[in-house]
Amino acid sequence: MRLIEADHVSFSYGADAVLDQVDLGVDKGEFVALVGANGSGKSTLLRVLLGLAQPDSGAVRLFGVDPRRLTERWRIGYVPQRAVLTTSLPATVGEVVAAGRLARTGWHRRLRKEDRDEVDHALESVALADRRRDAAGSLSGGQQQRVLIAKALVSRPELLILDEPVAGVDLDSQARFRDSLVHLVKDHGGAVLLVSHELGAVADDLHRVVLLRHGAIAFDGAPGELASQGVNLGIHAADLPMWLESRRTAAPDGS
Amino acid sequence: MILGALPLPFPFEREYMQLALLGALVVGATAPLIGTFLVQKQLSLLGDGIGHVAFAGVAAGLLLDVWPVWTALVAAVSGAIALEWLRSRGHTSGDLALSLLFYTGIAAGVVLTGLAGALDAGLLTYLFGSILTMSPSDAATIGVLAVVIASAIALTWRALFTVVLDEESARVAGLPVMGLNLALSALTAVTVVAAMRVVGVLLVAALMVLPVAAAQRVCRSFRSTLLTASALGAVAGIAGLVVARLADLAPGATIVLAAAALFGGCAVWGQLK
């Protein structure tokens, strides 16, 4: 079953074209990484896929419908880029994660026991069950990212979309982060679309890698195919631009 | 008079002090409910900005010979919605939008006051508050507005908290982010007008912010911050009134100073915890 489908999607900010005829699909049970150099259009593509921005041309379907018409929003879990919890925010870890339940409960209903159980389960899945009552702002950067992933998981989504969730996160947190995503894909049959410059922790679990270059898809296939061309996903941020450069030199038309 | 019959001890034995107590309690407890969200959105000065627009509304009421509370309410709600519109479109930062509100409001107020020829004690009542001259109808109006605010917060606090955490994620979750932000702005305007008679438009923002700043120093959860800030606001209202009566001082200012003192106390307690 196809959860996301982008069909010839183009998008621009004024005169600046950001996405050019992008085709992308993510199926149920797939773990897909969306990669590309800074400014290649990754975050914009996510915003278009989620219905936060409207494409200039082409069509996007989320769970088979226009993203703006999707009513069962709990089916999507989302961790935006540079999401941080400020130290001054007076909120517990449990409260932050519980905020993710509103997609299930509706914005005005009180939380019930089943909702609190889901919060516990989500925190267990990111190994933070014992921090539920702690102030969210007192956690380390890596722990805060795991809290936000738990917030995205707490509605039991069928599709998890994460934009640079492990930037600057310690190795231990990256390993726990990887376990959470694999748990969603293997145990719950969910799908993951991950934008990241640091894919080392999940490199062995990916089904597909989609490479975006100057707003167009330059590669869409198994990670092994990408690795065979000399790209090590573990140090992706360092060597991807070199690989792009070699492709540009080898094929001036960018194909 | 119903409240005048209540056998309360000094300094609340007089009818006017009982009405003032009611106003201070209600506004003190209600303003921080809104302020808790404004502080997290880094819009702590929104109440002050809307207060300036409310001043223009009061002047318009005096010019048009309409009860100034109504014209202040219309002006404040319009200003709050305009500010949210400017901010949400992304072309104007929050502090710049606030500045527009501040200066336009105060300038319009001065012009309208001049046209009405109303720069007198009546206007000063709204600028600095006049809690000791509250009438039973004033108290009833403030009470109704407070019930509206408390009910709205009880219904929407989880959703507003989610928006405060991250607007984009809230949109993806299907929350009506624009509607919630507009509702918060409108509630801020209603709170300003409700508090205007108690502490005046110039000090109204203090009751929205200081109890929240104090509660943040000692609370760990958002829910406890919300409730503690409300309780501290009510305490500041009572303490300020008592001090004003004992020392014969302006009650609006003593209420705000009491809130500032509570902040100092909570800051010390928070450090010692």
Give a short summary of the structure.
The complex is a heterodimer of chains A (255) and B (273). Chain A is α/β, with parallel strands linked by helices.
Textual characterization of the structure:
Chain A is α/β, with parallel strands linked by helices. In chain A, 33% of the residues lie in helices and 24% in strands. Chain A has a single domain, classed as P-loop containing nucleotide triphosphate hydrolases (Rossmann fold, 3-Layer(aba) Sandwich), CATH 3.40.50.300. A six-stranded mixed beta sheet of chain A has the order 5-6-7-3-8-9, sandwiched between helices. Chain A has a three-stranded antiparallel beta sheet with strand order 2-1-4, with helices on one face. Chain B has eleven helices and no strands. In chain B, helix 1 (15-40) crosses helix 9 and helix 5 crosses helix 8. The model of chain B has no long low-confidence stretch (mean pLDDT 89). The A-B interface holds A 50, 52, 71, 73-74, 76, 78-80, 83, 85, 88-92, 95-96, 98-100, 102-103, 107-108, 111, 133-135, 151-152, 155 and B 40, 155-156, 158-159, 161-162, 165-166, 168-169, 171-176, 180, 215-216, 219-225.
- The percent of residues in helical segments of chain A reads 25-40%
Total number of helical segments of chain A?
8
- CATH fold name of chain B, please? ABC transporter involved in vitamin B12 uptake, BtuC
* Low-confidence runs of chain B: none
| Strand element count of chain A | 9
The topology string of helices and strands of chain A comes to: EEEHEEHHHHEHEEEHH
Q: Which structural class fits the helix and strand makeup of chain A? A: alpha/beta
User: What is the CATH superfamily label of chain A?
Assistant: P-loop containing nucleotide triphosphate hydrolases
Give the overall average pLDDT of chain B.
89
Number of domains of chain A: 1
Shape of chain B: globular
Distance between the termini of chain A: 29 Å
Give the neighbour order of strands across the main sheet of chain A. 5-6-7-3-8-9
Compute the average pLDDT of chain A.
85
Proportion of residues in β-strands of chain B = under 5%
Q: How many domains of chain B?
A: 1
Major beta sheet summary of chain B: none
> What is the CATH topology of chain A?
Rossmann fold
- Counting DSSP E segments of at least 2 residues, the number of strands of chain B comes to 0
Q: Which structural class is indicated by helix and strand composition of chain B?
A: mainly alpha
How many helical stretches of chain B? 11
